[in-house]
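User: Second chain of the day. Same drill as before.
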Amino acid sequence: STHRQFARLRSEGIVGREVELKEIRKYLESNPAEPYFIKAPGGMGKTGLLAKAVTDVLPQFRERNHLVRFVGASSNIGTPSSLLLSLWPAKQNESLAKKPCIDQQE
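Assistant: Same format as last time:
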């Protein structure tokens, strides 16, 4: 997929991060129902870390399905909002688009 190709490219040259990768592996081993979020200021390496996890950690969990998405990896997912909308079937997207939305940016 486009997002897995993006992960392979972005993970090249990433060194270290063993502590964080171990934490992601532990999360996956727990067979979670909740999504995994990483929050940090820009430039801290969130995308590189997740790309490294996709290429190095996820293959150990082949028996499970994993949805991998990166904002900016494809033309239809350029913002966090478009990423979230891509997770729902098209019919639900149509009904969501008709509802009012408040965007509070400071």
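The chain has five helices and no strands.

User: Great, on to the next one.
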